[in-house]
Design a protein that fits this description.
Layout lengths: L4 H11 L3 H6 L12 H4 L10 E7 L4 H13 L6 E8 L7 H12 L3 E5 L5 H12 L4 E5 L3 E3 L4 H10 L3 E10 L6 E2 L4 E5 L5 E5 L15 E2 L8 E4 H6 L13 H11 L3 E13 L11 H12 L4 H7 L12 H9 L5 H7 L14 E5 L6 E10 L9 E4 L10 E4 L11 E4 L4 E3 L3 E6 L5 E5 L18
Parallel strand pairs: 1-2, 1-4, 2-3, 6-12
Antiparallel strand pairs: 4-11, 5-12, 6-7, 8-9, 10-12, 13-14, 14-17, 15-16, 17-18, 18-19, 19-20
Helix pairs in contact: 9-10
Length: about 475
C-alpha cells in the first residue's frame, strides 16, 4: 500500500528530492558506467595512498546517506579505504541519528559516526572531520552521492604523482525526481563576479588532443563538494576559513588558495561520482554573501571592485575578522590574483560597465538575493529569416525549447530578452537562455544559474 500524497510531498519538502522514491530503492543498486571506454582499460598500479572519506550532513535522508556510504564500500578496493567518517552536523530529524547508529553497529563497524555539539555549517564540520581523519589522503563527499566504477583510483594516482595535486571527479547527475543516474559532459570550474561557481565548457580544441578523454584537466575552480587532497597538504595549506558560516564561498576560497599558493587543481575525467543537484537548499541558514566577502577581501586584491559592482548589497556588510587568513596568505607566499587570472583563468572576462537599473530578483523560494543589472533589452532576431526567438511554451516553463516566430515588437513578453550583467539572456527577465550539451546542443529555458552554459556574447559589435 502506497503512502498518501501528503507524505510523499513531505519528503520533497524536507530534502528537495524525491525521498519517497529513494526509500523504495535499494541502498545498493547498479548504475550506468559513464566513463569513456579508454578509462575502463586503464590501471593505476599497486601502491596508491589510502583515503579517509569525510561526509558531513545536516538532516540528510537516511536512505540517501546509506546509499552514498554503500556505493563507496562497494565500488572501491577496500584496502584503499582507510576509514569513512560521517559527521552529523547537529541534525534534528526525528530518529535519524538513532537509526544510523544502530545500522552502522550492526552492519558497518568500520564507518565512524560523530555528531557535532552545535550546528557548525558544512565548512567547520569538514574541518572537524578532517581533524579526526588519519588516512594519507582526504576525500570529501556530499551526503547524497553515488560513486561510480573505479572512481577512487585515478584520484589517488594523481596525488601519488604530486602531493600538491588536488583531484576532482566529474560530477554526474542523480536526478532529484526520478533518481536516474545520468552522465554529464566534461566541463571546467569557473566563477562569475557575483562569486558564484559556474561550469565553463572546454574549448573545441580540447577534444582534438589525443588522450583527451582521460587526461587530467586544469580547472580554475572546483564546485566544492567532491575532491581528494593529501591530508598533510590540506593542513599545510590552511584547511578552510573557519570564520565562514553554514554554506557557500569555501569552494572558491580553496580553489584560489590552491593555485595562488603553489598547488594544482585538476578535474579527472576517468573518475565519476553522481550527485543529487537540488533546485533549493532545504535547510535553514546560509553564509554565502558574508563568506564570499571574506574570500574577496583576502584573495582578490583590487578585483574586489567587480564583486561590489555586481553585488552592491555586499559593500557595507560585516564579514568578521580576516587577519588570520591574510597572515596565512603571507606565510604561504602566495601569488597575486592578477597572476591567477592571467595564468590560470585567462578566459575570464571583466564585467562591462552597467546601467543603474538594478533588478533585485529573488531566486526560488527566497533562498538568496542576487543583484543582477539589466544592460539592455530587446528582441533576438534571426538574420536569415527575420523571425524572432521565443519560448515554445510559457515564459515560465523550465526546459521549454525555443522556436522562431513572427516578431512582435509590442509588449508581448514572450519575445523580450534581457541581457544582464551576468552575461546571460533572460526571457521576460525570468528564465535564462541555456544550452543543454548532454543530449547534443539544444537551446532551452532554465533557471538562471550563472553557469557557462548560459553565457552569451555578441558576434559582431553593432549587432544589437
Ligand atoms: C555545493 C557543493 C557543496 C559545497 C557548496 C558550497 C558539490 C556537489 N556540492 O553545494 O559541497 O561546497 O557548494 O558551500 O559540489 N551540510 C552540513 N551542514 C550544514 C549545511 C550542509 O553538513 O549546515 C552538508 C549537506 O548535508 C551536504 C553538504 O554539506 O552533504 C553540502 O551541502 P549541499 O548539498 O546543500 O550543497 P550543494 O551541493 O548545493
Ligand atoms: Mn550537495
Amino acid at each position: 500500500m502506497g503512502l498518501k500524497p501528503r507524505f510523499r510531498f513531505r519528503g520533497f519538502h524536507l530534502h528537495s528530492f524525491n525521498q519517497y522514491l529513494s526509500d523504495k530503492l535499494s541502498c545498493v543498486r547498479p548504475i550506468q558506467d559513464t566513463r569513456h571506454s579508454t578509462c575502463q582499460r586503464k590501471s593505476y598500479g599497486e601502491n596508491l595512498p589510502k583515503a579517509s572519506i569525510v561526509i558531513c550532513y545536516h538532516n540528510e535522508a537516511f536512505s540517501v546517506l546509506l546509499r552514498t556510504v554503500y556505493s563507496v564500500l562497494n565500488r572501491s578496493p577496500l584496502h584503499l579505504i582507510h576509514e569513512i567518517i560521517l559527521i552529523d552536523d547537529f541534525s534534528n530529524l526525528h530518529d535519524l541519528h538513532q537509526n544510523l547508529t544502530v545500522h552502522l553497529e550492526k552492519y558497518l563497524p568500520k564507518v565512524i559516526l560523530k555528531r557535532t555539539s552545535e550546528r557548525l555549517g558544512l565548512i567547520r564540520a569538514r574541518v572537524f572531520g578532517a581533524h579526526l581523519a588519519t588516512g594519507e589522503v582526504l576525500i570529501f563527499l556530499d551526503s547524497h552521492c553515488e560513486v561510480n566504477q573505479m572512481w577512487i583510483e585515478p584520484l589517488l594516482a594523481r596525488i601519488r604523482e604530486s602531493r600538491k595535486n588536488v583531484a576532482v571527479p566529474i560530477m554526474d547527475i542523480i536526478n532529484a525526481d526520478s533518481f536516474l543516474y545520468e552522465p554529464s559532459s566534461i566541463v571546467k570550474g569557473g566563477f562569475n563576479w557575483g562569486m558564484h561557481y559556474r561550469w565553463d565548457s572546454l574549448p573545441k580544441s580540447y577534444y582534438l588532443h589525443p588522450g583527451a578523454e582521460y587526461y587530467p584537466i586544469e580547472s580554475p575552480t572546483m564546485a566544492g563538494g567532491l575532491f581528494a587532497m593529501d591530508r598533510a597538504y590540506f593542513h599545510e595549506l590552511g584547511e578552510y576559513d573557519t570564520g565562514m558560516d553554514i554554506w557557500g564561498g569555501e569552494n572558491l576560497e580553496l580553489s584560489f588558495r590552491i593555485w595562488m599558493c603553489g598547488g594544482r587543481l585538476e578535474i579527472i575525467p576517468c573518475s565519476r561520482v553522481g550527485h543529487i543537484f537540488r533546485s533549493r537548499r532545504p535547510y535553514g541558514g546560509d553564509g554565502f554573501l558574508k563568506n564570499s566577502l571574506r574570500v574577496a577581501h583576502v584573495w582578490m586584491d583590487g578585483y574586489i571592485k567587480y564583486f561590489f559592482q555586481t553585488c552592491p548589497s555586499a559593500v557595507n556588510m560585516d564579514y568578521g575578522n580576516i587577519t588570520e587568513r591574510q597572515a596565512l596568505r603571507k606565510k604561504l607566499n602566495c601569488k597575486s590574483f592578477k597572476w591567477y587570472l592571467d595564468n590560470i583563468y585567462p578566459e575570464q572576462t571583466l564585467p562591462a560597465a552597467v546601467d543603474s537599473n538594478a533588478v533585485i530578483r529573488k531566486k526560488e523560494k527566497e533562498v538568496e538575493i542576487i543583484d543582477v543589472k539589466t544592460r539592455r533589452k530587446g528582441l533576438l532576431k534571426h538574420m536569415g529569416s527575420g523571425l524572432c526567438v521565443q519560448s515554445e511554451r510559457s515564459i515560465y516553463d523550465k526546459r521549454s525549447l525555443l522556436t522562431l516566430a513572427v516578431c512582435e515588437p509590442s509588449e508581448d513578453k514572450n519575445q523580450i530578452w534581457y541581457e544582464t550583467s551576468n552575461q546571460d539572456l533572460r526571457l521576460a527577465n525570468t528564465l535564462c537562455l541555456d544550452v543543454n550539451t548532454t543530449v547534443g546542443p539544444f537551446a532551452r529555458l532554465m533557471h538562471c544559474s550563472g553557469s557557462g552554459s548560459q553565457i552569451w556574447t555578441w558576434s559582431t559589435k553593432d549587432n544589437v
